[in-house]
Design a protein that fits this description.
The protein is an alpha+beta fold. Helix content is about 25%, strand content about 25%. It has two domains: about 180 residues, Response regulator (Rossmann fold); about 250 residues, Ribonuclease H-like superfamily/Ribonuclease H (Nucleotidyltransferase, domain 5, 2-Layer Sandwich). It holds the Pfam family Piwi.
């Protein structure tokens, strides 16, 4: 027998606007890059120590000056996009877009002489790791002479980018962890990325990243809720752990406008693992939440947020819920949300045509949400975004093809309808300043925290503590 059940009607949230000025509320745009071109970056309107010019140091291969020069020249060029023309505007040059200059720092270049036969070495990743450790130490001695470091990675070094089958090594994570200990923001550029046909997209991406890593704020959320703090949690298992596994705990706290404040990291053995997913004890969760709340207060002269929303990708256990409530009892409103990326649900858009429904030519709109239970909702953070299309276009679907899958959101604490929670998650998908896209599928609370968790589990020298989020972008 086939059983049918009716679901509630779906609802839709408009594409969130971004704010590009601290005082002029009219300086808003849903498209991040068009907003930059029209209004300039948010940092221009606030008293924030942003260097002008932004000075860039380099670590490149001994024979890589030509390739790096071609990339560098792109920052001062006008570049027309080849792909994504329904979204990507012409790159007008770094200074035109960000209103500050970008220059090469004087005498802050390190040339790496890596052997041509790197791939034939028994452990090529160790050669690269040792070379980069020395180069970064050299530049650290001149830290006050540059603002951001660029590292160019040629494809000929690819054999050393990861370790062997029994070596938990990743060059990207190794370099990020090492530069973080020296308080150096870094941008890695792989040759295969630099050779991408659409140079406008590459230079937009790199320009945004360099601007933010130098301390700039390109935009903030325009429709944020005052005095709300967002905490993204991620845990990672240390490699080679025994039954009593050591867990790396990572937390990043964001203010109500979606701006990342600081990362918090520490390790614990007071946890249990189920299906490779770590869960904290009540005391350890209370400890993590207390320290996260302190980060917010330190940035707000001791002021408590009126509301705290905690995101993680796994469920909240009873112990974890109790730990959150214990640590955040002075906060009036607490919401605990599991945001699950993998779900079998799909949605297909039908449109009215001559009084009859027919399959639409584009997927359902981004921002569509559908409650499927008293504490569960589906939210489409990818899909058609007509408001974000370049002038003259009527649709923009970032993924171009396939049927977009929604996020499954479960509420473990909190109350109210789903519109506010879904709107906040949709907002936070637009706050990854490390790429030129309209959105990420996951909110930045979780994408940044998971990146940090992956990095610190491999870097034993990265001590527990707080770190500027720019070092891990």
């Amino acid at each position: 027998m086939v059983h049918s059940a009716a679901l509630p009607a779906h609802s839709h949230i408009a594409e969130p606007p971004l704010l590009f000025h601290s005082e002029r509320n009219s300086d808003q745009h849903v498209h991040p890059l068009q907003g930059l071109i029209k209004f300039g970056p948010y940092s221009r309107s606030i008293e924030r120590p942003l260097p002008d010019p932004i000075r860039v140091a380099f670590i490149i291969p001994n024979n890589g000056a030509g390739k790096m020069r071609r990339i560098w020249n792109g920052f001062s060029s006008t570049l027309t996009p080849i792909y994504q023309r329904d979204y990507l505007p012409v790159f007008p040059g770094f200074e035109s877009a960000f209103k500050v200059r970008l220059v090469a720092a004087k005498d802050c270049n390190v040339l790496l002489d890596i052997p041509d036969n790197l791939a034939t070495q028994s452990q090529p990743y160790k050669i690269l790791a040792e070379s980069f450790a020395q180069a970064i130490a050299t530049l650290s001695a001149r830290r006050n002479e540059f603002d951001v470091l660029i590292i160019y990675l040629p494809s000929s070094w690819a054999s050393g980018f990861v370790g062997g089958a029994t070596d938990d090594f990743d060059l990207h994570d190794f370099v990020k962890g090492l530069t973080a200990t020296h308080q150096i923001p870094v941008q890695l550029i792989q040759e295969k990325t630099a050779d991408y046909a659409c140079q406008a997209s590459i230079i937009w991406n790199l320009s945004l990243a360099l601007y933010v890593k130098a301390g700039g704020l390109p935009w903030r959320l325009a429709n944020s809720q005052q005095s709300t703090a967002f905490i993204g949690l991620s845990y990672a298992l240390k490699p080679g752990a025994t039954d009593n596994r050591f867990i790396s705990c990572c937390s990043q706290i964001f203010d109500d406008s979606g701006t990342g404040l600081r990362f918090l990291t520490y390790g614990t053995e007071a946890a249990f693992v189920k299906r490779q997913n770590p869960f904290l004890s009540r005391n350890e969760m209370a400890r993590l939440m207390s320290r996260s709340l302190s980060l917010y207060q330190n940035d707000r002269a001791g002021q408590l947020p009126a509301r705290i929303v905690v995101h993680k990708t796994t469920r909240f256990t009873t112990e974890e819920i109790a730990g959150c409530r214990e640590a955040l009892k002075r906060v009036g409103d607490i919401e605990l949300l599991q945001i699950q990326e993998d779900t079998p649900w799909r949605g297909i858009q039908f449109v009215q045509n001559l009084g009859r429904g027919q399959l639409g030519g584009y997927p359902c709109e981004r921002g569509t949400y559908l409650p499927i239970g008293p504490r569960e909702v589906l939210l489409w953070t990818s899909g058609d975004s007509p408001e974000s299309a370049i002038a003259g276009k009527t649709h923009f679907y970032k993924e171009k093809n396939s049927i977009p899958a929604p996020l499954l959101i479960r509420r473990f604490a909190g109350h109210g309808d789903w519109q506010q929670a879904c709107n906040e998650i949709l907002n936070l998908t637009k706050m990854n300043w490390n790429n030129d896209g309209l959105y990420d599928r996951m909110p930045v609370t979780l994408s940044y925290a998971s990146t940090l968790a992956r990095i610190i589990k491999r870097i034993p020298r990265l001590a527990s503590g707080t770190y500027d989020f720019r070092y891990f972008m």
